[in-house]
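Dear all,

This email documents one entry for the complex benchmark we are building for the journal club exercise. For each entry we list the sequence lines for every component of the assembly. Then comes the predicted three-dimensional structure of the complex as a token string, followed by one or two observations. Please use this as the template for your own entries, and keep the labels exactly as they appear.
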Amino acid sequence: MKLTKTKEFKVFMEPISVANPVSVLVLGICSSLAVTTQLIPAFVMTFAMTAVLACSNVIISLMRNLIPKNIRIIVELTVISSLVILADQLLKAFMFDVSKMLSVFVGLIITNCIIMGRAEAFALGNGPWISFWDGIGNGLGYGWILVVVAFFRELLGSGTLFGFKVIPQAVYDFGYVDMGFMVLAPGAFIVIGLICWFQKTCIKGS
Amino acid sequence: MKFLLKLLQDQEKLFKKGGKLEKLYPLFEAQYTILFSQKTVSKTRVHIRDFLDTKRYMITVVLALLPCMLFAIYNSGYQAHAAANLSLEHVDIIKTGLQVYIPLLLVTFVVGGFWEVIFSVVRKHEINEGFLVTGMLFPLIMPAGIPLWMVAMGISFGVVIGKEVFGGTGRNFLNPALTGRAFLFFTYPAFMSGDGVWTHMVAAKDKLVDGFSGATPLAVAALSPTGESVSSDLASAGFSVSNMFWGFIPGSMGETSVFCVLIGAAILIITGIGSWRTMLACVVGAVSMSALFNAVASPDSVAMMSVTPIQHLVMGGFAFGAVFMATDPVSSPSQKLSKLIYGFLIGAVAIIIRAVNPAYPEGMMLSILLMNVFAPVIDHFVMNAKLKKRIPNVI
């Protein structure tokens, strides 16, 4: 069977494109406003989010036949929060600077609607292997939006990429000024809105 | 006229379906309807035939804006010459004023028009006249010293995000010109507020002036130390009430002269284009709010609290906003009562922002945009209240 025809591939690709958690389902907006002022935290956030999402999906999927229906949310939350604490501690141990930049938002992955939503909607009804791919797909689907937004916000808002100045001094001398608006949260709203618009137009066209 | 009509009709088949320039039909349609009246009439029943179409409507607003526009040209020249100690001959002043104003206007129309054409070609609808007014208003609410590329950014944001993403003229819930200004205000704060931006710098031959700091009355009042009389501070800075009324003061280009705004208001009210209810309610809201602040102001409260209602009305962009921005037919509510509520809240919120928030000396732009957002809600409740009064249908 060709790779692109497998069920895993479909589950993986859909959240990246047509069922994107941020730009189509409009979930997880708060963290995408908060961590996208610069590219580095956006990348780290993507990584943390994808790891937590994939692990929580696998664990919950493994336990799906053991979880009593009426306390399933609590069980899901316990799994997710343990994973988030783990991610937070790892970041603090190995990437302290970025962890400080992300501040409370790593902890807030717990409340990110995408994780809860995938656990409820996918992992509870599917096997661990396919749930893993669903987690990876959703994490990356969330992540690429984050990275694109952070790219524009960092470039336009502070003239840097990954902390390096990319807009030459000559342009500033000529009269160019960084857009202060892009550093503020409303700037992310506008950029995400434009991405949604662009994507909707593309999906409609195809 | 015959010649023009023939010329246009000759061109028409180029733009019609199947013609070479079919895609650019909106452009053809726009120039046709500017010169001649609409050819197409509605074919189904129940339509009021009236010559007051969008085009006539918008042209009337442009006419009402003319006094402000002429004054903007004169005053920006006057401020520039006064700052650089150049001659105050009328001809020289007007020349400089034109040098400031015409590029702003051109950039606004070229860039904004570009977006309008792009959207009308892609969406296959005609070019809307709404942009004519937006394009006239936008330069008038810019400070004279703003770089032109920022003007281009502002009008692009105003037209695209403020209007076109919601479906174009008639569907924008925010005033496009003000949206553009708000964008610039938050994006490039150093170029949109402060003391140095209100005057265009003229490079004089014998002396070089690097910068000139000309505060607006609002800035003077906001910075006036607590416990002192604001009126005397304003007066010593040269901003007496009559001075602010006639408008030979620094400020956004078209907003300084309350006199010219009043001429425009008269035109709008007499022709029935602008709603007198909104304007009146704005004034009432501002007067009552500032009277309230005056009443509660103690000697150690911020100076802005004790600015009198009359001063509030002639300062900054209040008059211009109330007459030209708040009355925008698309973004303001449609019911008579809701117009009163809407106007009152605009006036009141503007004064609250001016007096209470020291970061924003001027509150008119933000309060109009805020109430634009609330306009549909106000309409909703007013309509519901009206419907409740009716005798229920007896089935």
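Observations: DSSP finds 17 helices and no strands in chain B. The radius of gyration of chain B is 23 Å.
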